[in-house]
């Protein structure tokens, strides 16, 4: 698809044909099985000050927590017990979790469970990424959020656009399956910028692509900004499915939070992954990137039942394998 074609598709009102085509491509290239990734939000500590995020360093209203390695291990056990074949360990950036402890934890989980591990803990050095890979992590998620260098600088005042892309290269080099993505509907973001985001996501040849609507958070400088919409986010998802064919693309929590039924709609226009929350319930309310986040009061078992029901109601199945990358280079 060309930039102009993408811009056109992002601008049309009636997207039923686009969604139908994305669903067809999804069925053809990744099948009906939905991969479940149990999400453990292990620390909300963050050293950065992104203007959109509730966990930003300057937000003094957040009760900060850092789960111990034993607690994370127990959460991983719970995920394993619920039958999940992969885990995502996520935290704020520079959350100060010593790499040595993280590596020991990864080895312990990998030693006891047959489960794939994805990390989502921000920018690190190449050496740190290599250590995490050696310790057994399989995948890494690092969204670049927007491909507009100017918008990036406004939204992430203490990050460097170039360093973030450098990190994506390093992650590949040390052998991770790599995921990246963007937020849709950011203040100041145009459809032209989103078209560029899509082209860059395609060019990066990612194993996983995570996108979600921007949701204005009252605890941040962007509290008065207009949130993104589910409709535009789903168009981005559908276009990415058609262009990338076999990337793993989740129906994200933000899609389900901005609108009831958002994740179900995503599964019907290209998504093939869900990320049920397995964070211990007592920590969930403290991990609010954006307001009205779903599942804050639920237990890991609740999310498991909810997700199983969702998958079944759509006539889809739950994958029984780890859901590794479908790209040929892995
Ligand atoms: N609205 C939507 N998504 C958000 N994220 C952070 N803050 C928000 C928000 N206010 C997303 C970012 C980040 C991911 C973990 O959560 O894209 O990469
Ligand atoms: Fe948590 Fe539905 S996924 S309750």
Task: Fill in the keyword field for this structure.
globular; binds FE2/S2 (inorganic) cluster; 9 strands; 330 residues; TIM Barrel; 13 helices; alpha/beta; binds 5'-deoxyadenosine
Concise synopsis of the structure shown:
The protein is α/β, with parallel strands linked by helices and 330 residues long. The protein is 42% helix and 14% strand.
Description:
There is one protein chain. The protein has 330 residues and is α/β, with parallel strands linked by helices. The protein has a single domain (3-318), classed as Aldolase class I (TIM Barrel), CATH 3.20.20.70. The protein has helices spanning 3-11, 16-30, 69-81, 99-112, 126-134, 149-155, 161-173, 191-203, 230-244, 253-258, 262-267, 281-284, 300-313, and strands spanning 33-43, 86-91, 116-120, 139-141, 177-184, 208-213, 250-251, 273-274, 317-318. Strands 1, 2, 3, 4, 5, 6, 7, 8 and 9 form a 9-stranded parallel beta sheet that branches. Bound molecules: 5'-deoxyadenosine and FE2/S2 (inorganic) cluster.
Secondary structure blueprint with pairings:
Blueprint: H1 3-11, H2 16-30, E1 33-43, H3 69-81, E2 86-91, H4 99-112, E3 116-120, H5 126-134, E4 139-141, H6 149-155, H7 161-173, E5 177-184, H8 191-203, E6 208-213, H9 230-244, E7 250-251, H10 253-258, H11 262-267, E8 273-274, H12 281-284, H13 300-313, E9 317-318
Parallel strand pairs: 1-2, 1-8, 1-9, 2-3, 3-4, 4-5, 5-6, 7-8
The structure holds 5'-deoxyadenosine and FE2/S2 (inorganic) cluster.
